[in-house]
Amino acid sequence: MTIWDNEMKWLLCGLFGILIFASVVGYLLSLKKQNATIANLNARIRAWWAMCIIAIVAILIGQIGSLVLFALMSFYALRECITLTPTQRGDHEALFWCFFIILPLQYVLIGIEWYGVFVIMLPVYASLFLPARIALAGDTRNFLERAAKIQWSMMIAVYCVSHIPALLMLDIPGYENQNAKLLLFLMIVVQISDVLQYVFGKLWGKHPIVPKVSPNKTREGFIGGILSASLVGMGLYWITPFSWWQALLISLLITLLGFLGGLCMSAIKRDQGVKDFGAMLEGHGGMMDRIDSLCFAAPVFFHVVRFYYT
User: DSSP assignment of 40-71, as one string?
Assistant: First the structure.
């Protein structure tokens, strides 16, 4: 069985069917009434079209295509993180290592399926190397703060994101050549949770969860988005090696982690006094604004699947 079996075809038909329906609804709403919420919704729908098409192209190319796609996503996300927290001249050589040696090496390790090194290279070896390289530059001003910012950026933008294509390296009995469905399952459930939290929050949100961090995240949006996205995940159990109740629990786990990831990224933006990490994607801000939820969900999802299903 290949990844382009009937299950994959039905999944893609459903995904693009939803996008077509959303596009029609967004267009009709824009004809009826023009406001910032509708404009933002249509911008999000257009960005979703672009991201879905890119994801399908990567799957068509195969594992190498997915690795290149997510490596580029890590590169742009890392650039946004570093730009948001300005560095000093003494950090430049360490940053060269981050962008052009450590980042590609992380994805090469996934490509050759060297799990033992891939899983510890950044949190152990890179985390020791980078502050040492900064110290060798001889600039001690705000040393701990600078090293921590670079290490945090690498962990979030590179290490966590790299666990998404790493799903393709898992050897799950009875699920051979179908791991791309797991990748899509993760992205669909986490991202639709973000969308549904936004929708529920706009429709019924009245009580902010953490108003000083993200006043737009409400209890109503959180509960409605998390529960409905978990049900969507349960409904997609047929494309995974999970049973329906396992898919429900795993979906609940990754949507909760996605919420926490978005909240942490909002805290960083609030601290820096900016609305978005960048302006790369219309309606979504920068790359990190789009994948903030996946950063927390991806590594946990990867290790849950690896521990229980391989």
Answer: HHHHHHHHHHHHHHHHHHHHHH-HHHHHHHHH
* Separation of alpha carbons 309 and 225, rounded Å: 27
Residue 48's alpha-carbon distances to 20, 55, 103, 156, in angstroms, are: 11, 10, 26, 22
Sign of CA dihedral 264, 268, 271, 276: negative
Cα 290 to Cα 281: distance, rounded to the nearest angstrom = 8
Q: What is the pLDDT of residues 73-131, one digit of tens each?
A: 999 999 999 988 778 888 999 999 999 999 999 999 999 999 999 999 999 999 999 99
Structure tokens at 225: 């988005």
Give the separation between CA 257 and CA 259, rounded to whole angstroms.
5
Q: Which residues pair with 236 in a beta bridge?
A: none
Whole-model pTM: value is 0.91
Contacts (Cβ under 8 Å, ≥6 apart) of 166: 110, 118, 302
DSSP reduced 3-state for 281:
strand
Hey, what amino acid is at 195?
Answer: V
Helix, strand, coil: what percent of the chain each, to 5? Answer: 80, 0, 20
The 8-class DSSP code of residue 159 comes to I
Confirm if 298 and 191 have CB atoms less than 8 A apart. no
Structure tokens belonging to residue 23: 């596009």
Task: Give 198-235 as a DSSP string.
Answer: HHHHHHH--SBSSTTT-TT-BHHHHHHHHHHHHHHHHH
